[in-house]
Amino acid sequence: MTPQRYAYGDDPSQFAELYLPATGAAVRGVVVIIHGGYWRSTYGAELGEPLAQDLVRRGYACWNLEYRRAGNGGGWPATFDDVATGIDHLAVAAAEHGLELRSTTALGHSAGGHLAVWAAGRSTLPSGTPGAGVPVVPLPAVVSQAGVLDLRQARELRLGDDAVENFLRAPGDPERYRLADPMSAVPLGVPVYVVHGTKDTAVPLSQSESYVAAATARGATAELTIVPGDHFAVITPGSKAWESVVEALGRAADTANPVPPVTG
């Protein structure tokens, strides 16, 4: 299947690719795929392509999002502006293809998990903050695949060769780090489904555990599914870990677009 590319800015990294199910097939939901790579330009949207190809066969429309990363103009605030604008630009593609965006889930791996959960809390950000404002495309649910969900802990552990400071810079600006941290937005008003591998050495399981513990303690809906495999098992179609991700996407789609009760 050949995706359709949409530019949402002038930079070469400001684009997304739309994958659609076969003509006439029912659309299960829309998935915004946000790739990882510790926010570095070494890694790109090609990481999301196998996920989109698998999910589109399962009836999902997929928006595989690229964005500026550290090393190619990204970081604070560019990456956050790109993710917000890139998700909102999905509305343009949806209008062209008649997609219903009510059941839209953000799916993010690693650093993309961080960005997906951050994006779901955009409406709570202070005015003037990168990405703040009422989203054009709201995210009724999020699925995080081994996401970096606790930036303070990640920074203290120096994960990814100091990836957090490389991404955000300004180590003496605690407000920047607070606004970028998904932990600061707890409790989110939407469900967050978290999938993490037991043998993940790139992003430790504690990242997901600490987020889910904090969210549930504040009354939010957050669920952790621990799966076999390493950091990449959750983005490997055909693996048991990936099937758990697909199940989480199904729950997310049902949450965002519940089936009406049968009456009569």
UniProtKB/TrEMBL annotation:
What are the protein's UniProt keywords? Hydrolase
| Gene3D superfamilies documented for this protein | alpha/beta hydrolase (3.40.50.1820)
Q: Which residues form the BD-FAE-like domain?
A: 17-210
What is the residue range of the signal peptide feature?
none
Example GO molecular function: hydrolase activity
Tell me the superkingdom of the source: Bacteria
Q: Which PANTHER family match?
A: AB HYDROLASE SUPERFAMILY PROTEIN C4A8.06C, ALPHA_BETA HYDROLASE
* Record's protein name: Alpha/beta hydrolase
Q: Which species is this record about? A: Arthrobacter echini
